[in-house]
Specification:
Number of strands: 2
Shape: elongated
Structural class: mainly alpha
CATH topology of the largest domain: Serine Threonine Protein Phosphatase 5, Tetratricopeptide repeat
Strand order of the largest sheet: 1-2
Distance between the termini: 52 Å
Oligomer: single chain
Order of helices and strands: HHHHHHHHHEEHHHHH
Largest sheet: 2 strands, antiparallel
CATH class of the largest domain: Mainly Alpha
Low-confidence stretches: 285-289
CATH superfamily of the largest domain: Ankyrin repeat-containing domain
Strand content: under 5%
CATH architecture of the largest domain: Alpha Horseshoe
Radius of gyration: 28 Å
């Protein structure tokens, strides 16, 4: 009887039996657990209690030990299972708090780090943030597959390496995930493979699971950041536009009738006759008297403003 016929409840019982018997999950896989070991099955299934007991019961294994099959970690399996089970988020949080390596990946088909398995869904964005705060490498690369290594050997020339996390996000059209990676310092200029593909080129060849809207939005975001020069410059663009608007208002080329915004964007009509002759300086009120807010305070206030780019 395989794992699908057993069902999740029966597998949960078998996992606890294996734990009580001290079965070494690092040695071999079990067909009763979808071809994996019992602890990997617990991590994939969101079974927090079993994971906690496995590393709190004085057993002879470490939180960063690898499984026998794909040579992955319990943390990697918990991240992988988060698209089906929300409790996997709690497992990831517990494992990181107890010393799990956020960069330890799988060495099976090709090296994959936990960050490569996160994405745009709320639970996975939360996991990605936890991994980054725990020290995950935002520019981690996937290992090359056997096909990619064979092609690199055939074509020769320099090989930029496997996909970065940002390449993966662009390939799947995960806009929110791209924003998160760039915010944490991902290299938007990184290249991959013997073709030296850029992140933007990867966004132009989307995965079949991404909708046209998603990959068009991700491509537009990447183009805007590249045009700005960096993520920081991209985020500052709306603030600089506000500052430019203030200058236009001060020069009498724009205005607002709003009583509060009028103090942030003071309008000085050109050719004022404040003192009886053309070009005479216009008397200015102090900010405390309802006059314009000084530029220094204006820029300080704008620093706390959050635009759609933050």
């Amino acid at each position: 009887m395989d794992a699908y016929e057993l069902g999740p409840e029966r597998r949960a019982i078998l996992r606890r039996e294996a734990l009580a018997e001290g079965v070494d999950w690092r040695i071999g896989n079990d067909d009763r657990f979808l071809g994996k070991d019992w602890l990997s099955d617990a991590a994939l299934s969101g079974d927090l209690e079993t994971v906690v007991q496995a590393f709190s019961g004085g057993y002879d294994w470490d939180i960063n030990d690898r499984t026998s099959g794909e040579q992955g970690t319990v943390l990697l399996n918990a991240v992988r299972g988060s698209h089906k089970h929300t409790r996997c988020v709690e497992i990831v949080e517990w494992l990181l708090a107890h010393g799990a390596d956020p960069n330890a990946g799988s060495d099976g088909y090709c090296r994959t780090c936990p960050l490569h398995l996160t994405g745009d869904w709320p639970e996975r964005l939360r996991i990605a943030t936890m991994l980054l705060r725990a020290g995950a490498d935002v520019n981690a690369r996937r290992g090359l597959t056997s096909e990619e290594r064979a092609r690199a050997s055939l074509l020769g020339g320099p090989n930029a390496g496997g996909q970065t996390v940002l390449h993966c996000a662009a390939h799947y059209g995960h806009v929110s995930y791209i924003r998160l990676m760039l915010k944490w310092g991902a290299d938007i200029h990184a290249r991959m493979g013997v073709d030296q593909l850029s992140v933007l080129q990867t966004a132009a060849t989307p995965n079949w699971t991404s909708t046209p809207y998603r990959w068009e939005a991700s491509r537009a975001l990447l183009e805007d950041v590249l045009r700005a020069g960096s993520w920081k410059s991209y985020v500052l663009v709306p603030r600089k536009e506000l500052l430019a608007l203030r200058v236009l208002c001060e020069n009498g080329r724009a205005r607002t009738a709003h009583p509060i915004l009028g103090r942030l964007f003071p309008w000085n009509p050109p050719g004022a006759f404040a003192s009886g002759w053309p070009g005479a300086p216009k008397p200015k009120l102090r900010a405390m008297d309802g006059g314009p807010v000084p530029k220094e305070i204006f820029w300080h206030v704008v620093g706390y403003w959050r635009s759609s780019r933050d």
